[in-house]
Amino acid sequence: MWLPLCLRSQTACRGSYAAALLKCWRHWENGSLLFSHSAGPAALTTSKALLFRKHGDPSKVVQLEDVDLPPIGAKDVLVKMLAAPINPSDINMIQGTYAILPDLPAVGGNEGVAQIVEVGGQVTSLQTGDWVIPKDAGLGTWRTVAVLAEDDVISLPNDIPLLSAATLGVNPCTAFRMLSDFEDLKPGDCVIQNAANSGVGQAVIQIAAARGISTINVVRDRPEFTQLSDRLKAMGGTHVIKEEALRRPEMKELFKTCPKPKLALNGVGGKSATELLRHLQYGGSMVTYGGMAKQPVTVPVSALIFKDVKVRGFWVTQWKRDHSSDGKAFRAMLDELCCLIQQGKLTAPACTEVGLQDYSKALDTAMQPFTSAKQVLIM
């Protein structure tokens, strides 16, 4: 949920924020960022946050400002944000084109990991030092500290890599659910996907490999295709091919070494999605989770009539909301994903760590085509 913001001018807040930082030193211990107990969390009165007051070009509407922290309620937690990525959905939300939009002004960022500094008197599921991530979109993670409701976050083990924790809540969860909820996939089965080098695509490769499922990974042609192919195969990808190969006879040779896919995962749309459909086995499913090409999905009539393919959509935010009343399914999914991380079977995508003060550069880089690394703001 979006919390109302109490705003001051940057000039008025600068002194109190600097004083808070001086009183609240931090250190690394076992890979976790902790606050000095001697200073105490009470020293924190403001947060640095990336705010947008209107929708538009992120480079023009996002500003680093000081935000007053509200009092910590009985069921609230005070958290120090550790790291938060910049995802396409974050950009779309700022631009005003996403499916859900916050009340303005709003803090950017839907994903990230934080550490609990203080808990309210009636908080039962969390304790000081825990790592937490948002349960839902719209929490506003691009800030240094925040007061959040206990029910808005969920804990993670703090022995996993920081970047894995920061990027866990969206792309790996999307990959996990699509591999679990649409087809009964077993070891030896095959999945085909476009946008294979995206965050979702890399998670699909690794989770599928851990389950003994082959993947055909489609990427756009580029000068460094060989290096990209080698990297995706090192993650566990079975085959890596260019978009153009989907329409060529060489696909017949490929299917001599692996079965026709039961499941196609579409993050692009347009012609790419149509070509994925052509290679599905009878009765298979194509699940669309993104549309980077900004083109509609066209389904050949023959695929519906003669192959009885199923065309579905998936949005992880809706899945989380549909399962919010219980929470057991989300908890079980995070536990399984964290187990894969701890076993070295699931790693974060390539990331570039950027200080919060350098947000403009990070936003510009995140919006460039063929971006090879996810921009992650380090607080």
Automatic annotation (TrEMBL):
All copies of domain Enoyl reductase (ER), residue ranges: 56-377
Entry EC no(s): 1.3.1.104
Coiled-coil blocks: none
Main location per the UniProt record: mitochondrion
This protein's UniProt keywords: Fatty acid biosynthesis, Fatty acid metabolism, Lipid biosynthesis, Lipid metabolism, Mitochondrion, NADP, Oxidoreductase, Transit peptide
Subcellular location: Mitochondrion
Any GO CC annotation of this UniProt entry: mitochondrion
Tagged with keyword Oxidoreductase: yes
GO biological process, one term: fatty acid biosynthetic process
InterPro entries: ADH-like_C, ADH-like_N, ER, GroES-like_sf, Mito_Enoyl-ACP_Reductase, NAD(P)-bd_dom_sf
Electron transport among keywords: no
A molecular function GO annotation: enoyl-[acyl-carrier-protein] reductase (NADPH) activity
Domain of life: Eukaryota
Family under the similarity heading: Belongs to the zinc-containing alcohol dehydrogenase family. Quinone oxidoreductase subfamily.
PANTHER family given in the database record: ENOYL-[ACYL-CARRIER-PROTEIN] REDUCTASE, MITOCHONDRIAL
Name this protein carries in UniProt: Enoyl-[acyl-carrier-protein] reductase, mitochondrial
